[in-house]
Prior knowledge:
12 strands
Amino acid sequence: MIDAGQAAGVGAALSRRIRRITINPIIRTLNLVRALEKQGRKFANFSVGEPDFDTPEHIQEAAIAAMRRGETRYTTSDGTAALKEAIGRKFQRENGLDYRVTELTVGAGAKQVIYNALVCTLDEGDEVIIPSPYWTTYPEVVTVCDGTPVIVPCSRSQGFKLQPEALAAAITPRTKWLILNSPCNPAGCVYSAQELRALSDVLLRHPQVMILSDDMYEHLLYDGLAFATIAQVEPNLRDRTLTVNGVSKTYAMTGWRIGYAGGPETLIKAMGTIQSQATSNPCSISQAAAVAALNGPQHIVAERTAVFEQRRDRMVDLLNQVPGFACESPRGAFYAYVDCAGLIGKRTPQGTQIDNDTTLAAYLLEYGGVALVQGAGFGCSPCLRLSYATNFEEIDEGGRRLREACALLF
Length: 410
Ligand code: PLP
């Protein structure tokens, strides 16, 4: 948020639109950690959600080969023919969804794809239903696009999942979208096909509502769970569902910036139009790399997921040893979402009152040497989100630091 002082000076030039939103708290924490690390501080860093693994070798090689072939120029605005073909095959192979080329789009990360979809569809006052806890970006992008986020709290006792009755109660004539995210960042909850079926039954009664299914963590599923996505579960919703996915998490390609979606042709075309004016096209070399990721061997994905599952177990075990923390085992993605209610109201040895999860996260960063993100950023407090997409040593060290720092609170 821009403060009043800034608004009177250079800030006066800034639009009402940008003044409505804040910098992403995850990115803010990461920037702070990087600045402090430059001063020599060392952190157990659980703030950012990106695999610590390298992008697989064959994907890197495909990028190098693309450069050597001269694929260094502008591409078709919303994705090369080769990448769309690979995406079409992926949707068919893994989700049983058939999309024509004209129903596919590629952007600079799923984040841009989501932004494109919302900017193309929201007018002032249009409502977007967002179950909370949610990925920080959803309400902010809705707001920037003149829409109204309608946050539907989902309780821990119901596994943080949207219930059909709560969905039905939240829908109004102004509802344009429902955003679903399974496996979920930050709660790690996973909707079964049966649960999606129950939500579909509500949605079928409201034809004005489109569904944005954010499937970014599709492959990060544990305990033998099977993945389900709503357009597959209820084919009658296919023509009003945008199925969003990307290569960032599945193939350890966060920096390459490739996300994609399948959806209704009119929407996909509009998304291509905004992209053609905003960024022209996603990076040509990254697109070639994404083709190799989607068409290449997939065994590495399952191998890495097995490692994430072990890390999850270690992380949850350690977190439950921290005084004042309570954490269930997440079923997917790579985040632990800890209930820290037991620490709210306590004092730090420095005399600060821990009045909410933001103060607690700041204390843990400054005095505990642990970087994590407060639940306030995800619309569900008092909680803390810790990414366990990092090595066992860091998880162990972070667990030790958290135990020590929290034991000092009184
Ligand atoms: N959706 C969810 C739920 C995410 O957590 C993220 C990234 O953290 C994204 C989308 C965006 O991914 P990218 O823009 O890297 O493709």
